[in-house]
Amino acid sequence: MEDKKIEIKKGITSHIIKTNSFKTDLIAVFLTTKLTREDVTKNAMIPMVLRKGSTRLENIEEINKDLEEMYGAGFDCGIDKTGDNQVLKFYLETIDNKYLPKNEDLVMRGINTLLEIVFDPKLENNAFKTEYIENEKEKLKIIIEGKKDNKAQYANLRCQEEMYKGTPFGLYKYGYIEDIEGINQINLYEHYKNLLSKCKIDIFVSGDVEEEKIFETVKKNENIQKLNEREAEYCKKNAPFHKHEEQEIIETAEVTQGNLVLGLRVDEDTKEEKYAAIVYNAILGGSATSKMFQIVREKHSLAYTASSNYLRHKNSIFIRCGIEIDNYEKTLNLIKEQIEDMKKGNFRRRRYKKCKNRNSISYKVYTR
Question: Is this prediction's pTM over 0.85?
Fold first, then answer.
């Protein structure tokens, strides 16, 4: 697998990951910008509006028809949060050219189609189409209101919000309901143009492709040529973590299973320390042979699920357990024992007395 990149313009980079391991080629466009409270909701709405149509493909039906003509190519888009950045993501997947029944260059067509959707949207009176805006505002509201539906994800999200309160990472990637009403077709289009003029743009193509041909196609694409060079505004370094005392936050709901989340701050700066944090997380809760799984879940039967994940962009580890609510204190104490063992360099499993199995969603925020 080879990975090459070339700067098309300042702040706009094309990447090619050459591999023959798959029968499809993946094309992706990432727009990376700083996470801010003022813009987070508008940024979340942009992919939802762009997927509705472009100048040539005026609506979803036209886009779907074009995808069908590309042998059922897949298209999707969304929003993500990476460190202190918000990333607007767009994907198009096509069959690799060598598997086509006739001589066609599907990857080139896919590149041009995706760039058209992202950079040449359907407009009405020099603004986004009003109908599209109103529909997507309702959908975004539903998404934000629905963040409590998945209790495990919600507990993890709330832990991050409290742990990183007052910093960009503490923001919800889909934004906030109170911002939605003020969005309209004019100010969202102005925000979109401002975003395109300043954000970091990365265009990826992965597959068994001709590298020089791909680079040339991206460089000559009329939508790319219209873009200006820029000092891309995105966070190369994450905001510093504000140390504060351990805090515990409990929220209640009418549920039978609780969710316990502990957030741990990892003090590491060098590459070697980051590798050590990866190994630490694997032993603690990152695998089926970890302490969380083997001791908390299997040996003591205190959790339906027990794991941890290392968030390298923020130097944090989050321990997550689905528990019987009556087992909250027992589970918490047992997890603390595993952390203390790790501090002492004791990575072996220890013997514990069998614990016996209260109604709320519970989680704990640990910050050190």
Answer: yes
